[in-house]
């Protein structure tokens, strides 16, 4: 299968950089799959799962949104947060979920409501990744 270069960048580190066969990520309006030779695009991505196919195997990571750029057989993803399931601190994710749920029960201005709603989605995504990983190893 043809490959392309993938770089997943966070402000503090290069999360992933290698040649891959395919990626699938949740864009704002649905999932986007990218393979070698994909047409150039730039699109925002949402909170969800980043799936990377390398050497015929799928790797999965929790991603908290960002920007996806495809250009000349290279894909760059810029994100504030992306983690492999084994990097996720389950207790910290649970605490973030509970904190966001408590805040969302209050009367908040629209911008704060959106911020805490996004925090809840990020925490739920991280917890879902941890649970899926547990299910695959049992």
Could you tell me the CATH topology label of the largest domain: ATP Synthase, domain 1
Order of helices and strands: EEEEEEEEHH
Strand content: 35-45%
Helical percentage: 25-40%
The helix-and-strand class reads alpha+beta
What profile does the largest beta sheet have?
8 strands, mixed
Report on the architecture of this protein.
With 138 residues, the protein is α+β, with helices and mostly antiparallel strands. It folds into two domains: 80 residues, ATP Synthase, domain 1; 51 residues, Single alpha-helices involved in coiled-coils or other helix-helix interfaces. 31% of the residues lie in helices and 44% in strands. Strands 1, 2, 3, 4, 5, 6, 7 and 8 form an eight-stranded mixed beta sheet that branches. A hairpin with a 4-residue loop joins strand 1 and strand 2. The chain is globular, with a radius of gyration of 16 Å. The two termini are 31 Å apart. The mean pLDDT is 92.
Give a brief outline of the structure.
The protein is of the alpha+beta class and about 140 residues long. It is built from two helices and eight strands; from the N terminus they run ββββββββαα.
């Amino acid at each position: 299968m043809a490959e392309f270069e993938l770089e997943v960048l966070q402000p503090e580190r290069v999360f992933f950089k290698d040649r891959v066969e395919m990626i699938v990520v949740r864009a704002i309006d649905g999932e986007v799959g990218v393979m070698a030779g994909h047409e150039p695009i730039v699109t925002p991505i949402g909170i969800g799962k980043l799936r990377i196919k390398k050497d015929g195997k799928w790797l999965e990571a929790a991603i908290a949104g960002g920007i996806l750029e495809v250009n000349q057989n290279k894909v760059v993803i810029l994100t504030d947060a992306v983690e492999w399931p084994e990097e996720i601190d389950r207790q910290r994710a649970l605490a973030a979920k509970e904190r966001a749920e408590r805040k969302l029960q209050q009367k908040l201005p629209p911008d704060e409501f959106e911020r805490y709603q996004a925090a809840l989605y990020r925490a739920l995504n991280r917890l879902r990744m941890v649970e899926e990983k547990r299910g695959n190893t049992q």
